[in-house]
Amino acid sequence: MHPDPLTPYGNRPMVTPIVNAVNYEYASFEVLRQITEGEIDGYTYHRDDNPTVREVEKKIAALEEAEDCVICTSGMAACTMVYLTYLRAGDHLLLFHDIYGANYKVSLILERLGIEISWMNADDVHRIREYLRPNTRMVFLETPSNPLCKVVDIHAVRQAADTVGALLVVDNTFATPYHQKPLRHGAHLVVHSATKALGGHNDIMAGAIAGSKLYYNELWFTRQAIGTTLDAYSAFLLDRGLKTFEIRAAAMARGAEAVAEYLQKHPKVSRLSYPGLHSHPQHDVARKQMERGFGGMLAFDVGHHQEDARRFINGLQTIYHAVSLGATESLICVPHLTTMLYLPPERRAMFGVRENTVRLSIGIEPPEQLVADVQQALASV
Question: How far is 352 from 343, CA to CA, in rounded Å?
Fold first, then answer.
């Protein structure tokens, strides 16, 4: 029998091997039978499973305190796999406006498939029962939210969802499992854009879905059917990113706290949202369900017009003007023109995103360097 690809010499390599094989030779017909009947772990075809991918899945499952995890090609692939697995014509899906904007595009496709969709503002979470229907099959939220860092009480939403038997799905991309474990608070499934803090280096695109073994089996079927299995090299890079994930997450939270504390006193910042500040409307909820800090994301309004935000961003020297988040470098963008561009203009404004709103993802630079950069850039506004 050929050796296990992850232990090729009888002892485990320090670095997860990149197994690029599309197909695998069977040592015997009996081994094939054992693999296909689930008696032993094994591999037949990359679309089904891959040793490198499987290694990363187990690590993310452990981070989220889940029984298992499915890795796929992007964060939006993860969201779409969840929708396709658990929704069908006639079902009702409740989405929060305060989720990544590309979900709006997917919602248009789902509506064509006969799925009813409602949207609600995270600020109205106390009224969630008014939005639920007898045919609500799923509630999908993100906390802290993208881009305004609103915080949603996961446990309270789960209690409401249970009244109609709906599945609760939580996007944990902003918080990361370092700061928040949604399954502890009642989520059925946790999704990630692993492109962000889990990978952490702006060099891969991947998605993750964590939950029970039952959910894993159902989602694995969808992934195998539609072919969204991650390639082995991206899985290797994601695995490498996970080795420093907790160190990076801690550094990002320290930097974000320092920048937020500086910004809350600055006269040219007209609105600031960071869950770690006592001034945040849902700070008490954040304290209840987040730990070891409050993440590396914050949002704020610069001055009163988009021109103010433009001058501020153009003046930055350490922080990069770029989309995405959770990277080693600090990144800033104007959501109205980037992450929210998927939405019609009126929808971008209806839950609080303004033309002068900026979203800042803190990296691993020294906090004092980031504060100094923000300070000198605001001087040009």
Answer: 13
Instruction: Check if 47 is active-site.
Output: yes
171 is catalytic: yes
Q: Which of 83, 100, 215, 216 is catalytic?
A: 100
Note the pLDDT tens digit of each residue in 80-114: 999 999 999 999 999 999 899 899 999 999 999 99
- Specify the higher pLDDT residue, 11 or 332: 332
Ranges of H-type helices in the chain: 29-36, 51-63, 75-86, 103-112, 128-131, 154-162, 176-179, 213-226, 232-243, 245-263, 283-289, 306-315, 345-350, 367-378
Q: Tell me if the pTM is above 0.85.
A: yes
Catalytic residue among 196, 310, 348, 354: 196
305-340 per-position pLDDT tens digit: 999 999 999 999 999 999 999 999 999 999 988 878
Query: For 183-230, what is each residue's pLDDT tens digit?
Result: 999 999 999 999 999 999 999 999 999 999 999 999 999 999 999 999
Structure tokens at 359: 């979203």
| Catalytic one of 171, 239, 308, 373 | 171
Residues of the chain with CATH 3.90.1150.10: 245-378
Query: Selecting from 3.90.1150.10, 1.10.645.10, 3.30.420.40, 2.40.30.10, what CATH number does the domain 245-378 have?
Result: 3.90.1150.10
Is the domain 29-243 a CATH 3.40.50.720 member?
A: no
Residue 297 — φ and ψ, nearest 5°?
-110, 140
Q: Which of 47, 254, 288, 311 does the annotation list as catalytic? A: 47
Q: Are 173 and 192 in contact (CB under 8 A)?
A: yes
Q: Which residues contact 274 (CB under 8 A, 6 or more apart)?
A: 149, 256, 257, 260, 280, 294, 297, 298, 299
Phi, psi of 361 (to 5 degrees): -105, 115
